[in-house]
Amino acid sequence: MTLVTEAPADAQQESVRRVHEVARRAQTAAADLALATRADKDAALEAMAQALVVHTEEIVAANAADLERGRAEGMNAGLQDRLRLTPERIAQIAGAVREVIALPDPAGEVLRGSTLPNGLQIRQVRVPMGVIGMIYESRPNVTADAAALGVKSGNAMILRGGSAAAQSNAVIVAALRSALAAHGLPADSVQLLDGGREDVTSLITARGLVDLVIPRGGAGLIQTVVLGATVPVIETGIGNVHVYVDSAADLVMAREIVINSKLRRTSVCNAAETLLVHCDVAATFLPTILGDFAGREVRLHLDERAGVVARDTGVGYEPATDEDWRTEYLDAEIAVGVVDSADAAIEHINANGSRHTEVIVTENRAAARRFVARVDAAVVAVNASSAFTDGGQFGMGAEIGISTQKLHARGPMALPELTSTKWVLEGDGQIRS
Questions:
Q1: How far is residue 401's CA from residue 150's CA, in Å, rounded to a whole number?
Q2: Backbone CA torsion sign across 374, 390, 290, 327
Q3: Taking the model in full, what pTM does it have?
Q4: Distance (Å, rounded) from C-alpha 75 to C-alpha 161?
Q5: Helix (H, G, I), strand (E, B) or coil at 307
Q6: How is the beta sheet containing 110-115 ordered, strand by strand?
Q7: SS3 242
């Protein structure tokens, strides 16, 4: 999805009118949601999950039309995989909605409190944000995940998916809205914007009507929203993920971790995009792992030292450029380099990474501790695949995204990250002298 902030004046004015009306309906819905009990919200979530299953054929048909249009427009295989919905994937999406039911309701949770000497009771409690705008690209599962998390946390969601998934998203949202209304919660708790680029501008500048905007997608989308928004934004960054194989690594373990991190699913943000190997084990490890990649038709971008190994083993590759080290491929493609030390790997990661997820494979605990302390990322894994950076794997259920910023939320964002706090004072007539 290409986002451009400029639009003809009359089109932009009409968009502002339309989006502000959507936002006002969302505010009304959010006020009603704030009064809903957990039982009410959980019943609605179960109905939403059932609606996805009941409408599977309709959703798959709409998705097929989106895929056909994408192929005609030259969409690559990785993006098609992100877009594709099958009955099995829809069942998984419904399952993710049901997982949210089992999670604690964050609204009303008391974070801290005390009673002052004068008897005044003070407590800090979690409360919904209110109205959240979600802007995302070609993964229609995000539509259901965002809706479920919004309902459970008491927030009204305004969703603006990418044009690539327009028909899929329309059918999904219609099913979810119907389920909400049937169970006594406002249908406007979930709304979909289907206008053009001007709707994005109208949404991210609807200060006073929209409480928070969350962009989820490629670097261009996120940068556009961050630079153009007047509404507060939580960045969910791209995943330029590294795996560093240390000199003290168990190379059998390293091979499994690298393959899983890169190839479990290449189109997701937690997939590895760069492999760094310590020079002491490069001659042993690289022939094996490069052969693995070549056998799976992974396109290789190698630095000079990794290239020497590739030539010796007959593996084809392209020389890595400066841009390759900063690229999120989202496909069967990876950059590979050889480093002289763990500190060199850390320096490379901090210079080129996206602050998403970084992995070290090592049996040296001192090296692991240094890596964890010095690498600047939302998630750092020691001897584990980057594929675990996922709200479901963290026990959070469905997630709204992976935050790569440092304020309010960092890493997988689920229910607690969609709340703010409110201080409540309860007294019996106390006044301040």
A1: 13
A2: negative
A3: 0.84
A4: 16
A5: helix
A6: 110-115, 121-128, 419-426
A7: strand
